[in-house]
Design a protein that fits this description.
Structural class: mainly alpha
Number of strands: 2
CATH topology of the largest domain: Rhomboid-like fold
Helix content: 55-70%
Oligomer: single chain
């Protein structure tokens, strides 16, 4: 028995997204040729690429850095906004939760047994004067908009944390053991300080920020209830780190970005231990 009729062609498989096999997609990635559903499609210079190819390209692309070694990123300064958010939430908790301020504020006499207070006090503010948190958050926003993209997220975090701790260490060295302090002022002054060498390294004019430091420094001595010691400690740490970041050798900026904060952290720790040992509490 024979026939001249051809066999029917096998039905072509319906293309499905490799990441979502339950979704049919007739759009293919211009790079790898695989189907990509709308959720996995990313616009490219020519056509559409899948999310996997975009990620692979990002990993293999050469790293772009700023003049002081920070990694260039697009988008908003997320670290700055995160710090502001933490302060805002903490301020609400100060108002709503009895004892919240006392649990996390800093005083030298409290820091010896609860060292976390050296940092946590930076996220608390005076509940009797709303201008305290408003000024600090404004200053953090302004300085963070500049420094975070220039330094990169990791070094910016190190600068903020160590400046805050530096402010508390200065209170330990220069103030009464029972003087309680709250506020992000040490962190803010650290950012002020870092801006001076960074601006100069980039060819900018640091006169305005120097003037701002001077004005706020004088206010700290004249207005009661302001810890000039915390301002000074944060400023010194910020100046030191800012200068070191700005003048790190080209090609070794990433190494210095990790090494220098570690050195500053060790110095602060040694100072704290020495002070507590000197007064006989260690």
């Amino acid at each position: 028995m024979s026939t001249d009729q051809p066999y029917p062609a096998a039905p072509e498989a319906v293309p499905v997204c490799p990441r979502h096999p339950d979704r049919v997609s007739y759009v293919r990635c211009q790079r790898c040729g695989r189907p990509a559903c709308p959720e996995c499609q990313r616009p490219a210079a020519v056509g559409i690429q899948c999310v996997d190819c975009v990620r692979q390209a990002a990993r293999t692309a050469p790293r772009t850095t700023t003049a002081v070694g920070g990694r260039v990123r697009r988008g908003r300064p997320v670290v700055t906004f995160t710090l502001i958010g933490i302060c805002a939430v903490s301020f609400v908790l100060q108002l709503a939760v009895p004892g919240w301020t006392q649990q996390f504020m800093y005083a030298p006499v409290l820091g010896v047994g609860e060292p976390f207070r050296f940092l946590t006090a930076a996220f608390l503010h005076s509940t009797g004067f709303f201008g305290h948190i408003l000024f600090n958050m404004w200053a953090l926003y302004v300085t963070g908009q500049f420094l975070e993209p220039v330094l990169g997220r990791a070094r910016f975090i190190a600068l903020c944390v160590l400046s805050a701790i530096g402010g508390s260490v200065a209170v330990l060295l220069l103030a009464s053991p029972v003087q309680a302090v709250v506020g992000a002022s040490g962190m803010v002054f650290g950012l002020f300080g870092a801006m001076v060498p960074v601006l100069r390294r980039l060819g900018g004019n640091a006169a305005q920020i120097i003037g701002l430091i001077a004005i706020n420094g004088v206010i700290g001595f004249l207005v009661p209830g302001i810890s000039w010691q915390g301002h000074l400690g944060g400023l010194v740490v910020g100046l030191a780190l800012g200068y070191a970041f700005a003048h790190a050798p080209r090609g070794r900026q990433k190494l210095f970005g990790w090494l220098l904060p570690a050195v500053v952290a060790v110095v602060l720790l040694v100072v704290v231990l020495a002070k507590y040992a000197a007064v006989g509490v260690l």
